[in-house]
Specification:
11% of the residues lie in helices and 36% in strands. By secondary structure, it is mainly β. Strands 1-3-4-5-2 form a five-stranded antiparallel beta sheet, with no helix packed on it. It is elongated. The protein starts with 14 loop residues before the first strand and ends in a 7-residue tail after the last strand. It comes from Azospirillum oleiclasticum. It holds the Pfam family FAS1_DH_region. This is MaoC family dehydratase.
Length: 151
């Protein structure tokens, strides 16, 4: 298999994400969610939040400035998006600032009808400036074997 399993447990350098209300609005529009708590502070407060909140899948837009070392060599033509999951300690709010890191969690081998694949599991973990965890975005990337041979 091609993914370097010796790197499981590796963590990227930290990077900062600043959550802007315009980015929340554009994300909500892009996913087609008209909920007013994503664009209107009064509506968000009426729903019990301290301000504009982000849609539940918003951390999918948090990109590290550099690709993690464990994916740099992979052939982009053989990558498919897989499953995603999100866990929150509290909602993400406009104005939040997060210290984030990408964690290499595991690799799972599977046999598909089209051939073997490796499932690369990573987590983006975000903490507030005081170091309190706020969210985990767990994502699985499907890496297909090279055509005509093994992975």
């Amino acid at each position: 298999m091609e993914i370097d399993r010796s790197l499981i447990g590796s963590v990227s350098d930290p990077y900062v994400v600043e959550v802007e209300k315009g980015a929340i609005r554009r994300f909500a529009e892009a996913i087609g969610d008209p909920n007013p708590v994503y664009v209107d502070a009064d509506a968000a407060r009426a729903a019990g939040f301290p301000g504009i909140i982000a849609p539940p899948t918003f951390p999918a837009s948090f990109r590290a400035p550099e690709e993690p070392v464990w994916t740099r060599h992979l052939d982009r033509r053989r990558i498919l998006a897989g499953e995603q999951a999100f866990h929150y300690e509290r909602p993400i709010l406009a104005g939040d600032r997060f210290d984030c890191r990408v964690h290499f969690v595991e690799v799972v081998d599977k046999d598909w009808r089209s051939g073997p694949v490796e499932l690369l599991v990573q987590e983006v973990r975000g903490s507030d400036p005081e170091g309190r965890p706020v969210f985990v975005h767990r994502r699985t990337t499907i890496y297909r074997a090279a055509r005509g041979g093994g992975a």
